[in-house]
Specification:
Strand order of the largest sheet: 1-2-3-4
CATH topology: Outer membrane efflux proteins (OEP)
Number of strands: 4
Distance between the termini: 42 Å
Number of domains: 1
Structural class: alpha+beta
Strand content: 5-15%
Order of helices and strands: HHHEHEHHHHEEHHH
CATH class: Mainly Alpha
CATH architecture: Up-down Bundle
Number of helices: 11
Shape: elongated
Helix content: 55-70%
Amino acid sequence: MQYIILTLLVSFGLQAETLNEIIQHTLTTNPDMLLTVSNYRASKQTIKKVQAGYLPSLELYGSYGSENSNNSTTRNLIGGDVTLNRSEIGLTLSQILFDGFRVKYQVEQQKFLTDSSANTVKNTSENIALLTSEVYLEILRRQELLELTKNNVVIHQKILEQIKLLVEGGAGRKADIQQSSSRLSLAKSSLVNAKGKLRDAEINYRRVTGKLPTELLLPDSIDDKLPNNSEEALYLALNKHPYLKIAKANLAAAKSSNNQSKSAFMPNFTFELGVANRDNIDGVEGANDDMTAMLKMRYNLFRGGADTARVRETAEKIKTAKESIRSSQRIIEEDVLLSWNGLETIKARLKYLQEYTKSAKAVLNSYKEQFKLGQRSLLDVLDSENELFNARTSLISAKYTKIFSVIKVLESTGTLLETLQIDLPSEIQ
């Protein structure tokens, strides 16, 4: 059957898709992912912007206008003031020699912030991969439940026809027809609901991946990639999860910002080369050209306490960043333990649901044999069919819950993409 489906897909130009392929596609098209990548690239450019503080500055300036002068020169020459058309053009080259390490710590801070942005991309990727897995598996689950529900309607229809034949032959009761007919209506209602749920799943799938599902393949098992126990999972998460790395990078950036704020208490030294061509300045007609080479020092003595407040502000932000790390650790620990507990729970449930389904199937076979011997009615058989249907429904849901639980554990440790061998943009690696 699967071969026939795949053949038809190829003939119509379609291909069955795997979970890895869909995750890779989603990571390159999802708006939330693209937004974090753009923020990361912008952060890299900010590094280049602040690094420009190490380089010299070259400025060209010029001016032209009317100047009225009254100084000792004009008074000696003409006995008063004089108005001339003044013009000047010049070039200045400035190089910061020492700025209290302000630029150094600016660059250092921005590098840490860029590292934070890179880990934000990784964390978003893990989240999107988890969400993609969820909607992918939900499509498969709903498709399987729909087929089961369709088959359940067929079974109800067949039993109703059998009951009608028995009643027509005088071996049954009309009430049995009514009861079987009402159960058929309920089965058809369940079928309508199953179709609606599948459509809902397709809409969610499109929201996450940007396209409607085609033929999706059941993912290969990755159970062997799981940590051996919850303690190992916790250790892995606390050392590899990008969510925690974001907080740690932000702490490092806060420390650099604090160091940067202290540069305001140090003098600044700048070396400047200048050349200027001026005409008609200070009331004297003619050219007044000069060339300069200057070492300049600036040292702020008072700024209203702003610099001290800035140091204290950045010191408090260090404390904030430290508490953010502690909060992130608790969130990660909770996520890992809840995910691990969820996996252990569904594994235990799955075992019992398999036994339940096996028993329900055995009971149905026994009821069918007893019906042939006249020991059971068709309604008894129908009851048993419903019992098996409910068992299979629960088993199907549990099967996909278990697959997703494995994925969730890996995501909680921050290693889902690594396990699935999903590539991020090369610049993020």
